[in-house]
Amino acid sequence: MRMFVEKSKLEMSKKAAQIIIEEVKRNPSITLGLATGSTPIETYQRLIEDHQQNQTTYKNVKSFNLDEYVGISRQDQNSYYSFMRKHLFNFIDIEEGNTNIPNGMTTDKEEECNRYENFIKQNGGIDLQILGIGQNGHIGFNEPHTSFESRTHIVDLTESTRIANSRYFQSLEDVPKQAITMGIQTIMEAKQILLLISGEKKAQALHELLHGEIREEVPATILRNHPNLTIIADEDAMVVLGKSGVGLG
Ligand code: GLP
């Protein structure tokens, strides 16, 4: 594991973008695992700026998003499909056909989960997975107590996650109750993971990730077992640990 602590969310985002751009340049047909949420937005902005200024190309890049809400159409502004277009895909030269997001409007959810999981495998797996983290330590939409062996599956969102994500919706009732998410095993099979953590609200989750017992109650703790994990945190996310309290080499 390597860990960087940056002064601000902006610095965290710059560092993350720098790592992603290096990897894309090293392997122009890389398969990226992408995350939504407020945390990676500025990282995506830096990727766009770099694409415009330095012409880093995504022509041969493939992407798989972590998750999607069930029952929200692609056109809905709260779908993760819309999110990715709004914050990244519309502004870089990635091919629409190379981008993958679970279909939350499927009539056969089980079949969609199997299709997505198999399609990741058929494409040779994920090379670099970008991850955020939920306040309760969830990754993707893998809520506490999800099996570490899980693959792409349907989840019932916890009340706390629905409340946390309700800021994007008109009301809590509008927040979907289910989502399709890559499983924890799916995420762990990525060759490299880049985890972004920003803000005081995530400080406890970061503390658990680094020092808590590895347990399904806090999904992110499993990341400690990943052979190629990079964590980039901002100082606000370090309030529980203390600025130099990481305790890692
Ligand atoms: C959602 C997403 C996660 C994300 C989390 C944190 O639940 N499914 O992938 O990590 O939100 O979001 P934010 O970055 O907005 O705090």
Strand order of the largest sheet: 1-10-9-6-2-3-5
Kindly identify the CATH topology: Rossmann fold
Q: What is the name of the CATH architecture?
A: 3-Layer(aba) Sandwich
Topology pattern, helix = H, strand = E: EHEHEEHEHEEHEHEHE
Biggest sheet, open or closed, and with what strands and sense? Answer: 7 strands, parallel
Work out the number of β strands. Answer: 10
Number of discrete domains: 1
Radius of gyration, rounded?
A: 17 Å
Estimated structural class: alpha/beta
Query: Which term fits the overall shape?
Result: globular
Number of helices: 7
Mean pLDDT value:
95
Cα end-to-end separation: 9 Å
Helical amount: 25-40%
Measured by DSSP, the beta-strand proportion falls in 15-25%
Bound molecules: 2-amino-2-deoxy-6-O-phosphono-alpha-D-glucopyranose
Look at the structure and give the CATH class: Alpha Beta
Could you name the ranges where pLDDT drops below 50 across 5 or more consecutive residues? none
Question: Assembly state here?
Answer: single chain
How would you describe the overall organization of this protein?
With 249 residues, this protein is of the alpha/beta class. The protein has a single domain, classed as 3-Layer(aba) Sandwich (Rossmann fold), CATH 3.40.50.1360. 30% of the residues lie in helices and 17% in strands. It is built from seven helices and ten strands. The protein has helices at 9-26, 41-54, 80-87, 109-122, 159-165, 184-188, 203-211, and strands spanning 2-6, 31-34, 62-65, 67-69, 99-100, 128-131, 153-156, 178-181, 192-197, 229-234. The chain has a seven-stranded parallel sheet with strand order 1-10-9-6-2-3-5, with helices on one face. Strands 4-8-7 form a three-stranded antiparallel sheet, with helices on one face. β2 (31-34), α2 and β3 form a beta-alpha-beta unit. α1 (9-26) packs across α2 (41-54). The chain is globular. It starts with a strand and ends in a 15-residue tail after the last strand. The chain binds 2-amino-2-deoxy-6-O-phosphono-alpha-D-glucopyranose. Residues 35-39, 66-67, 132-134, 140-141, 161, 165 line the site of 2-amino-2-deoxy-6-O-phosphono-alpha-D-glucopyranose (GLP).
